[in-house]
Design a protein that fits this description.
Elements (H helix, E strand, L loop, with lengths): L5 H4 L3 H9 L23 H12 L27 E4 L4 E3 L8 E6 L6 E9 L6 E9 L30 E6 L6 E2 L4 E5 L4 E8 L6 E3 L2 E6 L6 E9 L4 E2 L6 E9 L3 E9 L4 E9 L5 E7 L16 E3 L3 E9 L15 E2 L10 E9 L4 H5 L16
Parallel strand pairs: 8-12
Antiparallel strand pairs: 1-11, 2-10, 3-9, 4-7, 4-8, 4-11, 5-6, 5-9, 12-21, 13-20, 14-19, 15-18, 15-21, 16-17, 16-19
The protein binds protoporphyrin IX containing FE (HEM).
């Protein structure tokens, strides 16, 4: 439905009252008692009361002369005109029914020099079948998906698709309700010369045979940034959720060995995801809860952007706790009888606490994830290395 004009909105008045009163709309799942977020969409109680009163009064139009000017929407890229567009070279066919394995499409950037990315956006070619897109940066020398022919959709052998999280990075992604990433001046992502973009395409059959050709748009920074932005993740892929368990807990933790600042968090689970939380333990032992999502909803893959910059000194531990509901009481549960493990499809599960951090522009990414080696312990390179 469209809410662009009074005529279009009026028939929805009761549904709007209902959706805002139960806080189903606008979609936002952070517990208000933990952290403050600069992209918080929660409506103040006074707005909800005003919308309800309007619906109860029969949704009157009011005086059209008092109406604000209609908003004008720009058709096209949210990031403005891209400096670089990377497109799947050909249409991919999605059958009317059945499961489509994740397709990986390698697109060489052709960049001859390192570039800093201020904004990036993934645009599905066909929203009816694109469940999500993740655009990874594959740096030169990475062995990830080495058998994939550039431009040709590729399905890696089971277990053969693991990405070097340490070596490769995220550029951008798309899921419904997720705005494009436009970084503030002074922050940017690094796209090294000779990098490829790897699109992870998750398609879902829609009952009708369809095709898709998605694109990535990139706007380069006008000046060199002060900080480099990276996506990291706290993850556990070894869990086994018993059939019927309504509150299965999974924990994961990651230590950051270089200083950084936290700029965003995105909890990710699948249909049995129930609750998710993030906290940090600083090197001095102080603990801080950063985000609590007590009622997770797989339909909303939302970034939560802290209102205040969180400084994470070297040695900070980022920990996440997930709860899964594999019982028949979970209406989204595709099979309460199943024992559930990590997997890519929605009926399998994931446990990822993605987070974006800003780090020193000259960082060696490996130093973020491993303790600095003592010089006295340095191991000489073996011959042939
Ligand atoms: C005050 C702001 C908003 C109002 C009054 C509103 C109202 C509604 C209503 C009445 C419905 C249909 C009834 C229902 O499913 O309960 C709905 C569904 C929906 N809204 Fe909103 N909405 C708001 C904000 C948003 C925002 C910010 C987004 C996207 C980021 C969004 C995305 C959607 C989607 C995708 C659906 C379909 C959900 C489904 O099929 O389950 N809405 N909204």
């Amino acid at each position: 439905m469209s809410f662009l004009s009074y005529q279009e909105t009026r028939p929805w008045a009761k549904a709007i009252k209902q959706a805002v009163t139960v806080r189903k709309m606008p979609p936002w799942y952070a517990d208000p008692h933990t952290g403050e977020f600069r992209n918080d969409r929660t409506l103040p109680a006074s707005d909800i009361a005003q919308i309800s009163a309007w619906a109860d009064a029969g949704a009157p139009e009011g005086n059209p002369a008092d109406a604000p000017k209609p908003l004008s929407f720009v058709e096209g890229w949210q990031i403005g005109r891209p400096d670089l567009i990377l497109e799947m070279p050909s249409e991919f066919s999605i059958p009317s029914q059945g499961t489509v394995e994740y397709q990986y499409v390698v697109i060489p950037t052709g960049l001859k020099e390192d570039r800093w990315v201020q904004a990036a956006e993934a645009r599905p070619g066909n929203r009816a079948v694109v469940h999500h897109i993740i655009a990874f940066i594959r740096e030169p020398g990475s062995k990830w998906l080495k058998d994939a022919v550039p431009g040709v959709p590729f399905v890696p052998a089971k277990g053969g698709h693991e990405r070097g999280v340490m070596a490769d990075d995220n550029l951008t992604g798309f899921a419904p309700g997720m705005p494009a990433e436009i970084l503030p001046p002074g922050q940017a992502r690094l796209l090294k010369a000779g990098s490829d973009i790897v699109l992870q395409m998750h398609y879902t059959a829609s009952g009708k045979a369809q095709s898709d050709r998605s694109r990535i748009g990139v706007v380069f920074a006008k000046a060199p940034p002060r900080k480099r932005v990276l996506t990291a993740a706290v993850s556990n892929q070894k869990f086994v959720i018993p059939p019927g368990d309504s509150n299965y807990r999974v924990d994961a933790e990651l230590t950051l060995y270089s200083p950084s600042t936290l700029i965003g968090m995105l909890p990710h689970m699948h249909l049995r995801g129930k609750a998710f939380s993030y906290r940090v333990t600083y090197p001095d032992g102080r603990r801080e809860d950063l985000l609590n999502v007590p009622k997770y909803d797989f339909n909303w893959q939302l970034w939560y952007l802290p209102a205040e910059v969180k400084v994470l000194p070297a040695g900070t531990k980022v920990a996440c706790t997930a709860f899964f509901d594999n019982s028949a009481n979970n209406p989204a549960n595709p099979d309460p009888q199943a024992e559930v493990r990590y997997g890519e499809q929605s009926w399998e599960e994931m446990m990822f606490g993605f987070f974006n951090i800003a780090v020193d522009v000259n960082i060696n990414k490996m130093d973020l994830y491993r303790p600095k080696r003592e010089t006295s312990q340095a191991v000489p390179a073996k011959s042939g290395d």
